[in-house]
Design goal:
Order of helices and strands: EEHEHEHEE
Helix content: 25-40%
Distance between the termini: 43 Å
Length: 119
Amino acid sequence: MIRGYSHESGRMRADEASREVFLDTYSMEIYPLVSIVIPTFERPHYFRLALESVLAQTYRNLDIFITDNSHNTETADMMRRDFSDDPRIHYEHHPPMAHRRIGRVPAATTIRGQRTSTG
């Protein structure tokens, strides 16, 4: 038996742990970088659902840009607390009038991916 595989009905199937290790190790080398932009405003619960859906995908070579125009800091607090350790996520909080600050670069101008989601 090959390590990380099990024999079932004459077929070799990768177990889930080996699949995860493979994807984490090689996704960046063999798959193009895909950028995803998620805008959010005053809806942290729905934003969390959207972000968790993106993070649950098997495709791993992602740049995830989040732009938050909320008046409050609920989403910002959630990002610091729950998602700050994922290097694929780039979060920017732009409360009203912040776009007028000199030197601010919108997330869309920093996209590095070879492909950009459109839907």
